[in-house]
Every structure is written in structure tokens, then in C-alpha cells.
Amino acid sequence: MGIINSSFYNISTFLSQHKYFIPEYQRGYSWEEEQLTDFWQDLLQLIKDNDLANHFLGQVVVHYDRDQKKWFIIDGQQRTSTSVIFLDVLRSILFEISDDYNIEEANDDASDITTSLIGRFTEKKQAQKLVLGDVDRKIFENIIQKKSHKNIEEINEKNLKPSELLILKARKYFTQQISNYINSSKSPEEKYELLNELYETFTKSFQVMYIETDEINEAFIIFETLNARGKELETSDLLKNHIFRHSNHKLNLVKKDWDRTIENLNNVDPTKFIRHYWNSKYEFTREKDLYKKIKRHVDTPKKVENLTNDLLSLSELYTSLNSPDDNTYYQNSELNERINEINNLGASSFFPIILALESEHYSEDDINKVLSKIESLIVRNFIVSGKVANKYEIEFSKIAFDISQQQYHSCKDILTDLNKNIINDEEFVNNFKTFTTKKTKVIRYLLRKINNYSNKETLIRNENNNIHIEHIMPKKIDKWDVPEDIHDEYLWRLGNLTLLGQEYNKKATNSTFDKKCIIYQNSNIPMTKYLVNYKTWTEKDISDRQEKFSNLALKIWNKIL
Fold first, then answer.
1. DSSP helix/strand/coil, 122
2. In angstroms, what CA-CA distances link 519 with 348, 404, 469, 513?
3. d(Cα 408, Cα 410) in Å, to the nearest integer?
4. How far is CA 124 from CA 120, 148, 152, 165, in A?
5. What is the pLDDT of residues 426-477, one digit of tens each?
6. Where are the domains of the chain?
7. pTM for this one?
């Protein structure tokens, strides 16, 4: 049939007219203190400002399932749940006022909240107005919907899921705010009047745009329409809604795969992951067009299932690509170390290539070879020569697409295509000779690789935090006879930088070069120990050392297939 009802309702009308259910595929409670504070401040503002008649809380999209005779909230779960939490806190404090000071009106208000807005919930009578999904239902029933909350303080927060903990925190937040609000009043009657004002203002002046439809697809379309133009929903949220809508009988399976994917990603941005995945299998797509592209392509239960399967299978790898300090995805330790190294350089435009290689079941040895070539490209083009990485994103996506389409006969063919994008040796060497940077991760990476290339017995590991960057010509040149312009030009040249153990670094800080050399002599890092062979440390010495580095750099980050 379509839309049954479209109206502006105050909270009282909205909550009292039906028993609402949250679909199982919806995420758990997610509001944090920032959103709760906005909610509370909006209510106070409404009370203080006589010119404000109403406050718009947001839209609520409801699907009425005629077969089950149930109302499901498709959009508006968070604001509805928060409203019930707030009302429960009001109810509890009203009952306290009634019990402590025998104020009958307080008891009446609290009873009205129970009957009309929260619903009675006991062991024998489950007539609550809002039923959450399995993820939060039990705690919501026990600490929000039951009248008695004697055991709240006994709850062990360590045992709670993140969404459950947020529900508990929301209740504590409103308890604190309302208590502080009424405690300014001296008499019980004044306290009740303030509580009653909160109750009346919230239930009568907070409004939602209520849209009810008896067709689930219609509900999802309305949801998309209302949210696609705003900034609140990420592409991943819109996509989730789309694939759930098109999953039909596979909904439970799709939901399970989606939830596991999000869990695997941990704090990694799902939208970036989905985009990199998409660019590994299809033609290059920018983020602003991603949802439209996927929506057009993924439009059947089978395609939805394939998509969520793919995302789940690649989610752990993608997380490792984004986690330089915790990367053990592959068996090949050299490959894991290489991922760590590149991660420290802040590059990510090549991710689609790795996802494509994994999807097509390339060996770890082949992936390592490809990643080695990508590492050379990143250093030569982006780090040293200042090329913009975004310009290469399309090319990387094209290579990934060709991998997914099985256009390459061997790993060597991929390396050849990557090589075409790497700047030539002459340009690289010339840029390296005068290369300057203040990015500590880049400095540590370059110096570590140069040191380790010639000195296999004294390798400096990526995770060694006891190794610090040492300015040979120091930042403070009180004891150095160096013109200011020369100091400014050469201070951050790679030739003026080395690596030094923490205990030595502090001693060397601003000393003269001859005294620094005494410290360098005791270093276990060969590149630093070698500095004692220099008699002076001038701009010529810095340039000479950096030129030697540039010759090594050609060998380390080479174009050899």
C-alpha cells in the first residue's frame, strides 16, 4: 500500500500509540555524552526561552508489518531509546520525591510515565512500549523498563558490551543532570515543580516527524531519502541499509557477515575499506560516487551475499594494512615487516592492489614482490620527489582491477606495470641529494633502511623505540660557528641526520662536533659510528654524506624486475 501515516507527533503521542520493535539487524545503542548533552541542553533551552514552542528531535521511520501486526523502527532507534531512558530517570526521581515527601502529584506523573510512555514490565507482564533487538534487550529491560532499579549499582561494567555500557552511562548521565537541576531548589514542592516542568516540556514540546509505511522496501527508501543528503550518515551506513533491504530471505546471514566485518575492522573507517575493496574489483570510483555505484550494481540477494562475503574475507587483511604496530596477518615475516614499513610512510592508495592479490589467491611471495615494488614507488615518487599520491590512485585502481579480471599472466607482469609509474634513476638521485624533511617517521624509515642495507649484523628494527633521530649539526648552534642561513638550509637535510641510542642522544644534543664524535664512537649503529671518519662537519660534509646515501638509495629502492 505504501505510506500509511505521515505526521508531526510530540513524544507523548509517538510513544503511547504503539508498541515498537527494533529490528534485529539494527546496531546497538550508540549515543555518547556529546549527543546526550545536546539532548539535555535542547530541553533546557526550550524551558528557558519563551519564544520557542517546540523542538524537533528528528524523524522516525516505522514499518508496520501486517503479517506480524508489529511496528518496527527503521530509522530513529537512537532518539527513541534515549527518550525512554530519559523518561525512566524522570520516573525514578518522581517516585523518590513522592516517597520521601508524600507528594501525590509526583506519584501520579511517575505512574503516567509507566503506563503510557514506557509500559509496564515485570516478570509476569511484558507490556513495554519499546522492545530492543537482542544485542541490548536484556539490559534495557532490567535497568530502564523495570520500575525497580535496586541492582543498578551492582552491575559489573567490565562484563558489558559497548552498547550496553552506553545505555548504563546514558542513564547515569541523565540522573546526574536532573539531580543537579532540581537540587538548587530548597523545598520538595519546588523540586517537584521543576520535575513536572521537565516532564511536560519534554513530552509535549519535543517533536518527531513520524512516517509509517506497511511496505518494508518503502521504509528503506524513505530512510535513504531522508539521510542521503545529510552529513550524519556515512556511506557505510547507507550501504548497510541498502544491502539489508535487498537481502530478502538471506537477511540473517547478511547481517551476521556485516557485523563480523565491522567487528574485524575495529576502529578502521568502514567507508574507506568498502571503497578500496570496490576499487580492487571494479572501475575507479571516488567516495562521493561510491554509494550510487554500489546501489546500482548490488541489487539482488545473491549480489548482496557475494558482497558481504567478500568484505568479511578481506576485513582482517585490511585492518592489518592500517595497523603498523600490530600486523601479523601473513605467515611471511618479511611481508608483514614490509607492510609495517609502508604504513609508517602514511601511504594507502595502493591498498586495492593488495586486496585484489589476496582475492585472487596470489602467493605471499608474489604479494611481497609486488609490495616491494610499491614501496620503491612510494619512496621515489611520493616521499623524495614530492609527487602527489592522489594522481596515482587511479593507476593503482586500474592495476587492481586488471588483477581481479585476471588480465595478468604472472606476477612479473604486475611488476612491469608498476615500474612504468616509477620515476627514473637520474631524477630520483638528483632529488635525493637535496632531500629535506621534518617528518620523523620518514626520517627514521630512510635512515634505518640505509643503515640496514650495508650492515646486516646490526639491523635496526622498526619497533625499536629506543633509537632516536640525532641532528649532527644541532638545532641550537651556540657552540657552532655556522651562519644562520646555512643552519636553516642544512639542519633537516638527511645527510645531517643519523640514528642514536636514547642514552647517547641526550649527551650529544648540543655538543661540538668533536665531542659528539666521542659519543658516536661508542654507538652500535654503523652509520653513526662511521661519522668519526669526518674531521669537520660543514655544509660540504653534509652534502657529501647525503650523496653517498643517494647512491645507496638507488640500490635499496630500485627498478629492477
1. coil
2. 39, 54, 14, 10
3. 6
4. 10, 14, 21, 27
5. 999 999 999 999 999 899 999 999 998 877 655 565 555 578 899 999 988 8
6. 3-217, 230-429, 433-556
7. 0.64
